[in-house]
Amino acid sequence: MRAVTAADLAARLTGPGELALLDAREQGVFHREHIFHASCVPLSRLEAQLPLVVPRLSTPIVWCDDGGDSELARRAARRASELGYTSVAVLEGGTSRWAESGHLLYGGVNVPSKAFGELVETRHRTPHISARRLAEMIEAGENIVVLDSRPLEEFRRMSIPTAVDCPGAELVHRVAQTVTDPTTTVVVNCAGRTRSIIGAQSLINAGLANRVVALENGTMGWELAGLETVRDASVTAPRPGPEAATWASAAAAEVGRRFGVRSVDTGTLRSWMGDPDRTTVILDVRSPEEYLEAHIEGVRNAPGGQLVQATDEYVATRGSRLVLMDDDGTRATMTASWLRQLGWEDTYVLADPERLDAGMIATSEPPAPPTGAGIDPAELAAVLADPNTVVIDIGSSLAHRDRGHVPRAWWTVRSRLGDLVGSGTPEIDGRTRLVFTSSDGSLAAWAADDASALWPGTEIRHLRGGTRAWSEAGRPLETGMNRPLTEVDDVWYKPYDRAQGRAAEEHMREYLSWEVALVDKIARDPLVSFPEFD
Fold first, then answer.
1. Which of 88, 338, 391, 430 could form a disulfide with 308 if both were Cys (CB 3.0 to 4.6 A apart)?
2. How many other C-beta atoms lie within 10 A of the C-beta of residue 520?
């Protein structure tokens, strides 16, 4: 496997051309320390994630891990090559060698977007309001509207009293329908800082006549101030009527001119999609609800606010062309304005989305998982009491813990199955039947395929439809993380995924301090820069 030195990688990260720097470790491990420009594509989920974030098979890819003995990067590179990727390399010595070469490492997830959010606040002096002051205004019945810029699922988990859900790119699109009095103060919040800052600055950039402020530290700041959040709220900002839509379209167009947002027609897009030497990614930035109502097959949904908040989860190829689409250009233009400021220079808005059809799109879908050796929920229920039957959940540990799992199921990470072979694990050794499950069963099918080579002579099955099918069949679920076979570090646990009380508060403080500190850290990093606009 071809190796790339730290010096070579640094030069390529600052030079022209496309490059996908991918970290093969689990997200929870990646979170501890990684290279700024890396996207997390864990080996355990590679087949499902890689084609989505790196759709062109000839894209230059450099895989990395921590440089230890696990060889995750090499295993990931080999698997990518098996899937048809033709320009695959590994970072020599991993992140350890990178740091030894004098380069910085970063903790956290979605670091480029988080660092950019802090830089926006510094550059634009985005106004903010404290949780205490907002609580006083709500208590006094002052003329304010609180707009929560997170997706509805997050909003329902916890929200500020009186808040209305209006995710990221929907803010400019819907604000004129939601806030009709120019004397109303508009407060934008999220869970922490980034989407509050970007959301508030979006409305300011759009020229909204109202006073606009970001809630300092979001719902975390609210809870740290000892204030109660609301659970299961469902109030959402209405879609714009004709007058509000006209204002939003004009406002977004002016923002687009300020930040050099360009448009592209379907004719040009067709030629781009046929270019074998350049990646073009088409993203539908409308809300998930609108996307589900109607969309072009092959175009991925990337709600604008989330795309700016977590760009590395949607696109991993630096230097890609990004083409954004919606129904009237407002959300696509606002999102493109932020992506250009993030450094995605070749970001465009599709000028004529009504002319786009699925036949123009060169899709890169994840490969279908193996179909053999499946077992239905009823079959599993019949053999579950057999002491020789062991159920192993290789889905998200967070889902295993909170959403539930098959009773008595053990949990592990797919890429660590080999560590269990001959390890003296009594839960597996000597058992004659291993049944793998995951949320929808896809990952479980890949794991069963891996396990067949690891445990020859053992009956290896995967639960068809996964834990979801088990639940939909009326079968019981257990919750909690009581049977881990390996370390539980596959995902980053957000502060509010942690224990409640003082422990959760400490995680919130650590997280907010980390966000604020990013702007100073990137100032010391010669490999990190964001373009400036007048």
1. 338
2. 11
Which CATH number is correct for 374-472, 3.40.640.10, 3.40.50.2300, 3.30.70.1400, 3.40.250.10? 3.40.250.10
Closest CA to 455 of 428, 487, 425: 428
Residue 142 contacts residue 134 (beta carbons within 8 Å): no
Q: Could you give the CA distance from residue 33 to residue 340 in angstroms, rounded to a whole number?
A: 26
pLDDT at 363 over 80: no
Question: How far, in Å, CA of 129 to CA of 140, rounded?
Answer: 16
| Backbone dihedral angles phi then psi of residue 305, each to the nearest 5 degrees | -65, -40
Residue 94 CA to residue 34 CA, distance in Å, equals 10
To which CATH superfamily is domain 3-109 assigned? Rhodanese-like domain (3.40.250.10)
Architecture of domain 116-253: 3-Layer(aba) Sandwich (3.40)
CB atoms within 10 A of CB 334: 34
pTM: 0.95
Output the CA–CA distances (angstroms, integers) from residue 163 to 103, 155, 169, 195, in the order listed: 42, 9, 17, 15
Three-state secondary structure of 168-221: CCHHHHHHHHHCCCCCCEEEEECCCCHHHHHHHHHHHHCCCCCCEEEECCHHHH
pLDDT tens column, 29-52: 999 999 999 999 999 999 999 999
| Residue in the block written with tokens 């890689």 | 50
- Look over the chain and give the mean of its residue pLDDT values, rounded to a whole number: 95
The two beta strands, 128-129 and 39-40, are unpaired
Whether pLDDT at 162 is above 90? yes
Q: Which helix (H) or strand (E) holds 92?
A: none
Kindly tell me if the per-residue pLDDT of 358 is higher than 90: no
Q: How far apart are the first and last CA of the chain?
A: 45
